[in-house]
Request: fold
Amino acid sequence: MAGPADVTGIALRARSMGTSRKKLVVIGKAVKPFGVKGELKIHAYTESLDVFGRSAVLFFDNAPFEVVKTRVHGGAILASLEGVDNPESARELVGKLVQTEEDNLPPKEEDEYYWIELIGMKVSTTDGRDLGEITRITPTGAHDVLHVEGSFGEVLLPYIDEVVMSVDTEKNEMLVDPLEGLVPDA
Reply:
C-alpha cells in the first residue's frame, strides 16, 4: 500500500548523463527566491523531505545544479545551489519543476509503491471491466484516492485493501474491486 515512500505530483523523465541514462523524478517546484544570498524556496511534492538531503544534484527542468545546502523552513525546502548566489539568479529558476535521480528516493517497504509507479497504470475490475488509467493521486489524510480516467469518465477509488486487489508494476496493471456506487453502471 502507499505509505511514507510516496512521491506526489510526480512525472517520470529520463536524461542522458554521460554514457548512462538516469531516470529523473519530479520532487517539487521552485516558487521564489529567499533572502539575499540566492537561496531558492521549493514547494516539495514529496511526503518526506529527506529526498532533498539525499540529492547532490537537483535538476530544474532538466538543467543540473549542484546542491550546496538544503534546509527546511516553514514546511518548504530552501536550497542553496552552486552558481546561484543572488536573488536575481534564483528568480530565473522560479516556476521550474525540480527533479532528482530516482536513486535518491527513500527505500520502499514491501507492498509500497511510489506514485510515479502508479500514474499511468491500467486499472480493471475483478469482473472484467476496463476502467482506464490512473491520471493522478490525491492524499486525503485517511487514505490516498486514485483518479482513473477511461470509458466511465473519471472514477475515484480509495487506495485501500478492500478496493485494491493487486498491483503489477511489471505489467503496469492494477486489479480493483470497487465499492458499490463508485463505478457508474454500464
Summary: The helical segments are 50-54, 87-91, 115-118.
